[in-house]
């Protein structure tokens, strides 16, 4: 752990041994309890009078994403235009929070989004595996920011974390945070590979201690991505972290959230766990693209009384 790392927060563990002691001293997660709590919150409903507001809030929380090897400049330009005007026929529809692309596509997206207020996020640090030397990860980050990204979504070294080398993971996050400069840093835990809820809690705290602005569940590239219990656990972590250190950190579940019903369940979970302070795009995001179309279809239904046709909105 570096001197820079240990100066981030007062009371931060100042050695690898202290960091391990701190992380393993966190309360163990009650697997049955966290799953039951997430399931119970999933049964809550939103009144019809509030559903329109919930849908618009969810739209404003979407990170509209394309992370495919076949991405083209044309696809990224079209996605960026959709981010600005999700429903071209309805100017009252709000824009999304951000567009998320690979570093090579940042200049293309930046040309469309410039001055709009919609953020430009880029995955970096050898996404999705994280298996690259630190120098490569830092160059990846610096290039994306130089090209116009104001948010960086980095992946942690899961191998190092699972091997118990917490200091290595910590120092990499600190270094990427420094390389990102003014850009906000979202740290992807890849919770589907962490095996246990205890590991998710430890990784969440590790990322926040190292300076993450957001903690994010997943890359969307593994078998298990965002789940309600994992997201609930991460929401509890950011709530408890702010209470202890006075710094607020955002949460981004990513992968597998496809319907308006699912999105509203997550909004209820935020409200019940963290309160109104996190019910804002600055503090909660959905890493999803297919979700946006369902939100738009449900929004049209509320406005007009009928669903739009299946080809009404673009496929991303």
From TrEMBL:
Keywords: Lyase, Schiff base. It is an enzyme of class 4 (lyase). InterPro entries: Aldolase_TIM, DeoC, DeoC/FbaB/LacD_aldolase. Pathway: Carbohydrate degradation; 2-deoxy-D-ribose 1-phosphate degradation; D-glyceraldehyde 3-phosphate and acetaldehyde from 2-deoxy-alpha-D-ribose 1-phosphate: step 2/2. It catalyses: 2-deoxy-D-ribose 5-phosphate = D-glyceraldehyde 3-phosphate + acetaldehyde. It comes from the Bacteria. The keyword Lyase applies. Its EC number is 4.1.2.4. SUPFAM superfamilies: Aldolase. The keyword Protein biosynthesis does not apply. Pfam families: DeoC. GO terms for molecular function: deoxyribose-phosphate aldolase activity. Signal peptide: none annotated. Belongs to the DeoC/FbaB aldolase family. DeoC type 2 subfamily. This is Deoxyribose-phosphate aldolase. The gene is deoC.
